[in-house]
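Progress note, sequence design subtask.
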C-alpha cells in the first residue's frame, strides 16, 4: 500500500477510514493495519507499553508523571494506563498523558472498538462521553478520582509538527504508530529526534517494533536501545532510555 501524501498544517483533520474484522476489530483502510494486536490488545498494552517502560512501578512516590504517545487510536493504551495509575499513584499525584494523532476516530467508532472489553466499563464511558462525535482538533479531558488526577491532551495533527511544538518533557513514551512498513513517517529519524527533545533525562520509550531502521533512528536520537521478547509470540520488541535529556521538574505546571 502506498501511503497518501501528508496534508499541510492548514488542511482540515481527516477522520480515520475504518473497516471491521471479526466483529469489532478496527482495521485502518488507509494504512492496511489493525489498531491493536489481534491476539489481545489489552495484554499487548500491558506487556509492551506499561511493562516496557517500567510501569506502574515508576509511578510510586511521584507527584507528577508525564507520558507521551504516538498514535492514540482507540484510546486503549490510555485506559489501561489510567487503570494502572489509579492503583499505584500517591495521594494528590497527577499524570499528564499527551497523545499525537492525525486520524481521529469518530465517537461511535471508539465506542464500538472499546465495547470488545465490557470490563473497561466506567473508564471507557468517561473517555467516550468527553469525545466529540466528529472530532476535528485537539481534545482535552481532565479526570479527578478524589485521590489523584489525570490530564489527557490529544494533539491533533502531523506528529512531527506537533511534537516539535509541544511543551512537556516526557518520563515515558509509547511509540504505537501503525507498522513502520505501512506508515514510515511515524518512525522517521526526524520524528525520533523530536521525541528525544521532548524527553526528560532518564526518560524511556517502548514499542512493539524491532525493525532495524527504527532502532537505528532511536539510537541516532540519543536513546540506548535494546530488544526484549515481544507480545503473543512476536519475537522482539524494543525499549530504551535517554541517559541525558531535559532535567525532570516533578512539581512543574501542567503543560499546554
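Output:
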Amino acid at each position: 500500500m502506498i501511503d497518501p501524501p501528508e496534508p499541510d498544517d492548514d488542511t482540515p483533520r481527516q477522520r480515520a477510514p475504518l473497516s471491521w474484522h471479526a466483529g469489532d476489530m478496527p482495521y485502518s483502510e488507509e494504512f492496511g493495519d489493525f489498531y491493536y494486536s489481534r491476539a489481545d490488545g489489552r495484554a499487548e498494552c500491558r506487556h509492551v507499553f506499561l511493562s516496557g517502560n517500567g510501569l506502574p512501578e515508576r509511578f510510586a512516590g511521584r507527584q507528577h508523571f508525564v507520558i507521551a504517545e504516538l498514535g492514540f487510536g482507540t484510546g486503549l493504551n490510555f485506559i489501561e494506563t489510567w487503570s494502572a495509575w489509579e492503583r499505584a499513584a500517591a495521594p494528590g499525584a497527577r499524570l499528564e498523558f499527551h497523545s499525537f494523532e492525525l486520524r481521529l476516530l469518530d465517537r461511535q467508532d471508539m465506542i464500538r472498538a472499546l465495547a470488545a472489553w465490557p470490563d473497561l466499563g466506567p473508564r471507557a464511558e468517561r473517555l467516550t462521553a468527553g469525545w466529540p462525535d466528529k472530532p476535528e482538533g485537539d481534545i482535552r479531558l481532565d479526570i479527578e478520582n478524589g485521590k489523584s488526577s489525570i490530564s489527557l491532551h490529544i494533539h491533533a495533527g502531523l506528529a512531527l509538527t506537533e511534537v516539535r511544538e509541544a511543551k512537556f518533557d516526557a518520563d515515558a513514551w509509547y511509540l504505537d504508530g501503525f507498522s513502520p512498513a505501512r506508515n514510515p513517517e511515524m518512525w522517521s529519524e526526524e520524528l525520533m529526534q523530536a521525541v528525544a527533545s521532548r524527553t526528560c533525562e532518564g526518560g524511556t520509550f517502548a514499542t512493539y517494533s524491532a525493525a532495524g531502521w527504527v532502532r537505528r533512528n532511536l539510537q541516532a536520537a540519543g536513546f540506548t536501545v535494546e530488544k526484549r521478547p515481544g507480545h503473543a509470540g512476536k519475537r522482539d520488541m524494543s525499549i530504551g532510555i535517554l541517559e541525558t535529556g531535559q532535567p525532570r521538574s516533578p512539581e512543574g505546571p501542567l503543560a499546554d
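Helices lie at 41-50, 76-88, 107-114, 121-129, 159-165, 189-197, 212-220. Work on this subtask will continue into the next period as scheduled.
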